[in-house]
Amino acid sequence: MLNPPIPPCQGGDEAPPLKRVKQAIRAADARTREGREGLPRSTTVLGFDFGLKRIGVAVGDRMIGVAHPLQTIQGESNDQRFAAIAELIGEWQPGLLVVGQPFHPDGTEHEMTLRCRRFSRQLEGRFSLPVVLVDERFSSAAASQDLREIGITGRKQKGMLDQVAAQHILQSYLDQK
Description:
By secondary structure, the chain is α/β, with parallel strands linked by helices.
């Protein structure tokens, strides 16, 4: 199982574990030399589980190699979604974005594969950050299993499932590095 999901915050306050994650990531960024091996200065990475209704977001660090669920973006319009993403990018200052790319179990593409590619091109164009696509097959099933293991079942999973799936996507990228 991946790192346990951090429960969403109530009333706008950050949960103490999230504060510790931010502090660790900022400390790692401070140790990273600009331009080393062509990597962006920031070692922070944001991961996305793109969906038509929701976008799950996770945060991680290339040096630490750990991903954590961050939030689920809900919004009907692209303007709302990209405004929320812009806020996260402003807050976390990532050097890289990772987007889960869905495939059928046999590896063939489907409609959402093309939509995720478009989403990744939009991210790259709007925020001038490099974007990496990662195979996300079974990330939602694994996220649901993780949530069940900590006692979050059924409809209670809805608010967290996408961000935990984004955590799986991002962690798979970090594990490859």
